[in-house]
Queue: 2 jobs
Job 1
Amino acid sequence: MNEPGYFISFEGGEGVGKSTQSRLLGDWLADLTGREVVLTFEPGGTALGKELRAAVMHGQDMGARAEALIYAADRAHHVETVVRPALDRGAVVITDRYLDSSVAYQSGGRDLPGHEVEHLSLWAAKGLRPDITILLDLEPAAAAARRAGADGKGALDRLERAGLEFHTRVRDTFLQRAAADPERWVILDAALPVDDIQAQIRVDLSARLGLTPVVAEAGALAEAAAVAEADAVAESLGEDRS
Ligand SMILES: Nc1ncnc2c1ncn2[C@@H]1O[C@H](COP(=O)(O)OP(=O)(O)O)[C@@H](O)[C@H]1O
Ligand SMILES: Cc1cn([C@H]2C[C@H](O)[C@@H](COP(=O)(O)OP(=O)(O)O)O2)c(=O)[nH]c1=O
């Protein structure tokens, strides 16, 4: 029988470092454990998902319910065709956003009832919840400044245009959900340097997965995980996701 799969989600606002940290974590876990690691993301982690992503992020204006249903459709297909099969093979799956994004954005941000959005997501995902969710917490203004530094040229998508109040409600919803379920969530300060955040993630994951102590190694990471590398990673992931 396969080793059981392990499901990790990264959550937080736009530009907080989710793709940077998920890639660094994936490389480290694959090297250390030899397990299959699947890196994926929502919305748009499948071919159908790319079309749904384009519609919801760059398409016509739409109401909150239509938006929630598109994210749920993306999730249903993503779980059925990518996440669940990988977990069944015994892989570690790392997703950049999952159902907590729906609750934070479509409920906290757009004002739909939280339990309805969560229920819709769980229905779409046939009840699949992450084993651990890493929240990269950052003030929306700081995240916006970071994104502007990364590619000030790019046009803002529908969600990015939503404004500071919207993004503050999104952040507060993430923090409330994390506080309510500390077993599943790890809250990290996304204003710290890339390598410090990654070191904290590795220490936490080592404990949860029963890996050999890596505290010393995590300290040495300060030199290893160069921000330049993280930039390249973020860029290459970003290319897939206009
Ligand atoms: N801890 C950090 N400190 C400073 N800049 C960061 C940090 N983490 C990521 N970045 C940079 O911020 C930008 C957004 O990072 P990214 O990983 O794409 O975030 P997300 O996936 O959450 O949108 C990139 O230019 C990236 O290099
Ligand atoms: C998965 C998901 C994302 N979103 C939003 C959050 C983002 O604005 C956008 C996805 O963008 P994403 O590519 O994750 O942005 P970033 O890498 O900058 O964080 O979709 C929802 O509103 N609901 C959801 O369920």
Job 2
Amino acid sequence: MTTFQTIDDLESGRRLLVRIDVNAAVEDGTVQDDRRFARHAETIRELLADDHAVALLAHQGRPGRETFVSLEGHADILADHLDHPVAFVADTCGDEALAAIDDLELGDVILLENVRMCDGELPEEEPDVKAETDLVRTLAREFDAYIGDAYPAAHRSHASIVGFPQVMDAYAGRVMEQEYTAIRAVRERTFDGPVTMVLGGTKAEDTIPILERLDDTVDRFCLGGVVGELFLRAGGHDVGYDVAGTALFDHQWEDHRTDLERILETSRDRLFLPTDLAYEDDAGKRTEVSLEGTSKERPFLDVGSETADRYADLAADSAAVFVKGALGVFEDDRFADGTVTVLSAIADTDCFSVIGGGDTARVIELYEFDEDDFSQVSIAGGAYVRALAGESLVGIGALADNP
Ligand SMILES: Nc1ncnc2c1ncn2[C@@H]1O[C@H](COP(=O)(O)OP(=O)(O)O)[C@@H](O)[C@H]1O
Ligand SMILES: O=C(OP(=O)(O)O)[C@H](O)COP(=O)(O)O
């Protein structure tokens, strides 16, 4: 078992650099979901109770995406959850940040600007390379210790995740510790009956390795969302094209076409693909079409009801169901049916279930599911499924390697 120091091992009254993950859905510049804030507030509250000074480091979105915004609004949401001021600093590791860190006193909390705006945070590189970035070299000397709490980003070999533990005393925060322990316990379970995985969402890069690595554990994969459409395209159907300027489909197709075609060929008996899809018609209404009637000129925003019912039946007949990624654009209630139908089937049966994905977990709140109807709800997406597949997460490894 991987072991790391936790915040229980910290002496009180330290100056701490705390990496959290409050990456959230953002619309028109405004954060739409506070699940991750609520969880990290628990770690921060404990740190404040132990009289530490806390500087928070976090990211939001990816450069080039609409969700790549400043963390100013995030500081207010966090302050509400903590019921304690969180001062936003519009800089990550320059003079303004260093001045704010200099002023930091025990009991204070500051949030530094989006770390992905800083040179050196991206791209993914080896931890020793990341340890040499200006970001790590500059901030590391300002603090007594680093707290890694960003479990949802623990699969990314970015400077703020793997670089600091190379050069600083490092500890796992509560989110990191709890999510790691929970997924580890799931991996050790065996199930008396079929195991189903519902895979949707937008990130083919996170889904493809799962399909290959969970081959022994999962009996059937029900695919939807952008990922499902990419598989349909690999099977020769007229879907999965960028028609609304989102660059979600065509770029991923170029990057992953060979893998998609290979997996479709080798795992055909385990893969369940949509047989119908839903789109917005000219009158603005949800309309469904079978695969024979699809066209590459139209964006599809959900799986159709025949597909949703088939996936719901498979889930209801399972001993365990793992969900990662939504089957449609659930933020628009016209296109939430696929995801909601399948989650309802899972909630109504007593199978073991894990629901993951930063966005997917939001469906539970938006559509008023009772969280207790699921065995486990993870605030992570890509990190949770990789851990489920037995992959070591670099962010956990970095904390474990810390002397
Ligand atoms: N057909 C689709 N077209 C565009 N976006 C989609 C589609 N299906 C699902 N999505 C989007 O996928 C998002 C969830 O994606 P992702 O980030 O991969 O999952 P998670 O955050 O749950 O890990 C949702 O916000 C949803 O709107
Ligand atoms: O939200 C996240 O991942 P998730 O969508 O898989 O839950 C993490 O913050 C990682 O973000 P990234 O996938 O832009 O590296």
